[in-house]
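Contributing new complexes? Match this layout with adenosine-5'-diphosphate.
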Amino acid sequence: MKVLVVDSGGRGHAIAWQFKNDPNVKEVICAPGNAGIALEIRCRNAKKSEEIIDLAKSEKVDLVFIGPESPLTNGIVDLLNSEDMPVVGPVKKASILEGSKAYTKLLCREIGVPVAEFEVFDGPEAAKDYIEYVKYPVVVKADGLAQGKGSIVCTDKQEAHQAVTQLMIEKIFGDAGNKVVIEKRLYGKEISFFVFTDGETIVPMPVAQDYKRAYDNDEGLNTGGMGAYSPHSLEGGELNKLVSEKVARPLIQGFSEKEGIPYKGVLYLGLMLVEETPYLLEANVRLGDPEAEVILPRLKTPMSDISFQIINGVLSEREVEWNQDYYCDVVAAAGRTKQFRNGKSKGWYSGYPARYGKGYPISGIEDINDPDCKIFFAGVSISEKKGLVTDGGRVLHVVGRGRTLQEARAVAYRNIAKIHFEGIRYRTDIGK
Ligand SMILES: Nc1ncnc2c1ncn2[C@@H]1O[C@H](COP(=O)(O)OP(=O)(O)O)[C@@H](O)[C@H]1O
Ligand SMILES: [Mg+2]
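Output block (do not edit by hand):
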């Protein structure tokens, strides 16, 4: 069969690579993909929903898999369904679980899924009154999509007031801040928990530890993710049972009872474990990035089988199998670089997640031929003169495999050391 993967980053590369190694799959296409993915998988420059539908039809693909949240909340699955095109991902109405944090929190409260004490506000005055009224530190969250940056964790009232001002008055994330959720700040162990679901059956994936802060020892600003590893020490039957019973099952069932439609695809639960209770911080309607880069390589069951089981509502018919190898992903990011214009120095950019430069040639990839090392490309493009160049904040993921975490980590670090581009920077403590 022929499969189309819709994504442009490292997660998309990991999904497409999984299909590439699937014995049922003859060809994989990625849209839009990137120049690094294109080294091994055909990429087509389709971005808008209509372009993707046209591509899926003209290429006569047998299956479409959607990576990121925005095409899902824009309704790409509904469009593909209306063309009778098999697609993995929730429909628009079900993507509200990520599209509106207020909706999901209210649903959780209604059906008894554990969430921190919260209220929803659609104006700044009432939001600020509430901050004065509650006696504990809060997290202020934009209701809508804000590329994972819309939640502001506050230590005191002053920070919380400022967060409301930024989201609701200055509108730093636009309409995503028309509403906010203000919730009690929890202290515990944060984990991400992913499941495949056909709306009835839930298949938990293995657990990954991700690293969100820019610098070693979890210092610096939040990023999209600087690395990850899997398996996680908490993963296993006990955690699966706890999260499935307390969160995943009631949420998926509660949603379908309330809205009269099933939730199908991948569901990502951001949780805070406080003693024995998994509190839902947020739900996402897709795989995480960089978690996908260390979870998917552990998949033994063909991705195409799981996809059609989800689509046909028969996920319970066959067990999904995972290997027990360790995978460790270290992200090479665009760091500090000097900027020039017309031969004159313009000073320094401090690097991702703040301002960073682009277009630096990437070298050393060709020196990596380690069977335990895989590179997933994120922010790269191709230049006629310079070859492969940087084109984003997170440039590429170097994933090492081993029988232990130490081995996997050593493979990743040994190989990332061979790669060079101006300003390259990575954390040195992933999996440590
Ligand atoms: N109630 C909370 N208590 C403590 N930390 C929180 C809480 N809610 C969110 N966070 C922290 O903020 C981060 C981002 O919040 P999240 O709800 O996942 O939204 P988003 O990923 O869209 O920004 C979480 O990964 C977590 O570290
Ligand atoms: Mg999150």
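Reviewers usually confirm one structural detail per submission. For this one: The chain has four domains: 2-91, 117-184, 189-317, 326-425.
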